Amino acid sequence: MVKYAREPDNATKSCKARGSDLRVHFKNTRETAFALRKMQLQKAKRYLEDVVARKRCIPFHRFTGCIGRTAQAKNEGSTTRQGRWPVKSCEFLLNLLKNAESNAEVKGLDVDALFISHIQVNKAMQQRRRTYRAHGRINPYMSSPCHVELTLSEKEAPVKGEQEGKEVRQIKARRAKALRIGAKA
C-alpha cells in the first residue's frame, strides 16, 4: 500500500487512483491537473475530451515560457491568455479518472456525486538517452516523467441548523449592546 500526499476527510465516501513514472511531460501534466481541481467527475472527463478534440484549451499559469496565446484560454479563466492542448497529458489523466471511477463503483459510491477533491503531480526520476552532436560530441536527451495521484470524493449535503427563535436573537442583541456600552465606559 502506497502513501498518498493527502488522505481524504471521509475515507468511506472517497476513492483514489495513482500513476507512477508516467512517460508524459511533467509541466504539461501539472497544468492540466491544476485545471481539473475541485471539478465534478463527469465535467472533468468532458473537459479533457474537449481538449483532445481541440474545442477547449488548458490555461497555463506557472510554466509559461514560450507558450502561445489563444482565444480559448480567455474562456477558461486565464488572465494571460496563454494556453495549449496537451493531448497526451489529457489522455493519461482521463485514464486515471476512469480508473478512479471504477474504484468508486466497486466501493458502491454514487458516481454522479463525485468531484476531484485532491489531484497532485510530482516529478519522477528523469530517463536518460543520448543525442549525437557535431565534432563527435554527445549530449543528454532526457525525458521528464511524472507521478500523478488523485482522490475523488462524494459531495456532502449541507446540514441545516435549527431555526433560532426571535427571543433568542433579541437576547443576543441586548447582550451585545450591553457589552458595547460596557466596553466604552
Describe the structure concisely.
This protein is of the alpha+beta class.
Which bin fits the share of residues in helices? 25-40%
Q: What best-fitting shape do the alpha-carbon axes yield? A: elongated
Q: Spell out the helices and strands N to C.
A: EHHEHEHEEEEH
How many β strands by DSSP? Answer: 7
The parts where pLDDT drops under 50 for at least 5 residues are none
Mean pLDDT rating:
92
Described by strand count, sense and barrel closure, the largest sheet is:
3 strands, antiparallel
What's the Cα radius of gyration?
A: 24 Å
Biggest sheet: strands side by side, in what order?
1-7-4
Instruction: Decide which structural class fits the backbone.
Output: alpha+beta
Q: Count up the helices.
A: 5
The first-to-last residue Cα distance is 63 Å
Binned strand content: 15-25%
What does this structure look like?
The structure is a single chain. The chain has helices spanning about 25-35, 40-50, 70-75, 85-105, 165-185; strands at about 15-20, 60, 85, 115-125, 130, 140, 145-155. With about 180 residues, it is of the alpha+beta class. Helix 2 packs antiparallel against helix 4. The chain is elongated, with a radius of gyration of 24 Å. The termini are far apart.
Blueprint (SSEs and pairs):
Layout: E1 14-22, H1 26-36, H2 41-52, E2 58-59, H3 71-75, E3 83-84, H4 87-107, E4 114-123, E5 130-132, E6 138-140, E7 146-154, H5 166-184
Antiparallel strand pairs: 1-7, 2-3, 4-7, 5-6
Helix pairs in contact: 2-4
